[in-house]
Amino acid sequence: MHDAAWQEAYRGIIPGRALDAMINRRGPAWWLSAIRSGSRLLVLEFDSHIAGYASHGRNRVAAIPYAGEIFELYLAPEYQGVGLGERLFQAARDDLAAKGYLSTIVWALSDNERAIRFYRRMGGVEVWRATEQFDNDTRDRVAFGFAAN
Asked: How many domains does the chain have?
């Protein structure tokens, strides 16, 4: 699910070799380590299949005045467009709020038009811009802020 979701989201945006390397780093050992280290993960299951996941926690950028951050939110391509992303997003926000992180940021590559539309539709407001390096290419990214629930 992870591999298919990332390929769907980033093919044509992140250079091919860099994307493949990022995907390949996320094997079973990485996921086991994330779980054992206490990372906040939500898994969306639909009809006994993993349909998506979200990872979240404390905001990693102190200069941005939002308490929580959704690090990743992905759905398998076959589950996109039916409202499951909104449910997963809200579940992550609710879990952050339960931990005392009442406001939230989430980053998206500015070329990822689907993600940009999604976070705007969810009520996000652009609060920060930065760049990210992928091999020899630089991509712009944008942080969307969400006030307390």
From this structure: 1
